[in-house]
Design goal:
It is built from 2 helices and no strands. With 145 residues, the protein is mainly alpha-helical.
Length: 145
């Protein structure tokens, strides 16, 4: 039983580490989603400025500057999308690892429960045997008197 308890504690520790890794991966994914949203909003705002400036009249150098900056924002958005997809894949991997670890813990819990039940059966039989012996001795004493 001591070995099962040690194994159980070991597996619980691994499960806790798996849960922390999953949480960290989910946080990274969420941060990448927020970055992408921020870049997209900033790009949209910059496009509005370009549109407004175009309506007012804009020289070609300023127009080129706007487009170059928008291209940089597009590139940044692409890089964040790649990071976001990688983070999402990591979340899925960490989730599978955590679920596998939960299954291991459940298996150890089942083994512990079975072992405890078997120990209880043995203890109950020993207790019943002791009560039977006491009853037998009492009966023998009564018969002798």
């Amino acid at each position: 039983m001591k070995q099962l308890n040690t194994l159980y504690k070991f597996e619980l520790d691994k499960e806790q580490k798996s849960a922390q890794a999953l949480k960290a991966a989910e946080l990274d994914y969420q941060q990448n989603k927020e970055r992408l949203s921020g870049v997209s909003e900033y790009r949209l705002e910059y496009m509005r400025r370009l549109n407004q400036r175009s309506l007012e009249g804009i020289d070609s150098a300023t127009y080129s500057h706007f487009h170059a900056f928008i291209a940089k924002l597009d590139n940044a958005a692409l890089q964040v999308k790649v990071a976001m997809h990688q983070a999402q894949a990591l979340v899925e991997t960490r989730k599978k690892q955590w679920l596998e670890q939960r299954k291991k813990i459940q298996a150890v819990e089942l083994l512990r429960d079975k072992k405890l039940a078997a120990l209880r059966v043995v203890a109950n039989k020993q207790e019943q045997k002791m009560f039977d012996e006491i009853a037998t001795q009492q009966f023998v004493r009564r018969v002798r008197q």
